[in-house]
Write a sequence for this structure.
């Protein structure tokens, strides 16, 4: 049930694990380029560029640490400048790096991300050290010493197998969330069922959720619930028209009765949470996951979790890259209260 999912995910104080959340996914150095439009052949001016630590789960864990949660991470980097920069970025944010292996003589993973406004993006992945992940590299006891484990994708079968192996060995009281992306959506529901059935929470943009199952949006969400997931969140980017207005996200959860079929649905309105120009959408989904998980671990209702995710994503849009704009706890709650206080008056603060 959704209420049971929140209780399980939020046991971090009563059970006294070492961490509130531990992330487990690829660690990359992101090379970001903003261009006027994407092209297939020819040349175009680069309007802005930056190089920053990245990785979907890594961005979310960085954001949660900035909000004051006790965080760690499991992954692998190379013994190079990029790997050192990733570790230093985590340490500055207060993320424990004891679960990250430094692999000698291997290059850290890299991505090339080219964006053109809010609608167009191309990401090219060089897995590097991420592909070398083995069972000896993953300390399941480290992951188990958390109230919640947050996953994101790896490219390649070996690392995916180690992720699946570790999740299968987690204690039942540890909550699990998965940030679905195109890499894992292409595996299909059958290929991901062993992960999804263990998930407290699945977060995906609407297109990737539909790609996962080959069904329409609501049928896709319900298929994931039938597989075993507790809560499915579909995000809509700049918004999608639904009955009753424009929505930023839709949350579908198991009903309070705990029936395997049927669902409770919540819609988060597309309130404008960023007032300036949109600088870059890179990492907005990871920021949404930051806000949603923050709310879940704080015991908030699912609509408020969605609104917190939407609010956190708004901060991300103000800066280039996935991490530069992420808020601290006070800033997140202040903007949430300002933007959503009329909808969630009893849960402000």
């Amino acid at each position: 049930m959704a209420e049971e999912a929140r209780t399980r995910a939020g046991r971090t104080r009563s059970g006294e694990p070492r961490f509130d959340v531990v992330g487990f996914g690829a660690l990359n150095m992101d090379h970001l380029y903003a261009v006027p439009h994407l092209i297939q052949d020819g040349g175009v001016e680069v309007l802005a560029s930056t190089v920053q630590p990245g990785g979907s789960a890594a961005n979310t864990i960085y954001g949660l640490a900035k909000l004051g949660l006790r965080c760690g991470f499991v992954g692998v980097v190379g013994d190079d400048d990029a790997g050192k920069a990733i570790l230093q970025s985590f340490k500055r944010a207060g993320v424990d790096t004891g679960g990250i292996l430094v692999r000698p003589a291997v290059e850290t993973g890299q991505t090339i991300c080219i964006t053109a406004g809010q609608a167009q993006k191309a990401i090219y992945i060089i897995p590097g050290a991420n592909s070398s992940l083995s069972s000896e590299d993953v300390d399941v006891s480290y992951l188990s010493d958390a109230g919640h484990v947050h996953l994101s994708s790896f490219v390649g079968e070996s690392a995916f197998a180690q992720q699946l192996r570790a999740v299968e060995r987690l204690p039942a009281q540890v909550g699990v969330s998965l940030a679905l992306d195109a890499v894992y959506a292409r595996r299909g529901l059958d290929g991901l069922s062993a992960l999804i059935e263990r998930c407290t929470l699945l977060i995906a943009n609407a297109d990737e959720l539909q790609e996962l199952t080959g069904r329409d949006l609501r049928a896709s969400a319900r298929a994931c619930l039938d597989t075993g997931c507790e809560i499915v969140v579909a995000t809509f980017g700049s918004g999608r028209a639904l009955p009753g207005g424009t929505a930023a996200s839709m949350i579908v959860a198991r009903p309070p009765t705990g029936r395997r079929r049927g669902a409770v649905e919540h819609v988060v309105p597309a309130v404008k949470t960023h007032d300036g120009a949109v600088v870059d959408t890179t990492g907005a989904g990871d920021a949404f996951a930051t806000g949603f998980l923050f709310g879940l671990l704080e015991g908030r209702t699912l609509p408020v979790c969605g609104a917190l995710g939407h609010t956190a994503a708004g901060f991300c849009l103000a800066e280039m890259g996935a991490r530069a704009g992420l808020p601290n706890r006070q800033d997140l709650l202040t903007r949430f209260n300002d933007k959503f206080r009329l909808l969630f008056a009893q849960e402000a603060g």
In short: The first strand starts at residue 19 and ends at 24. The longest helix spans residues 302-316.
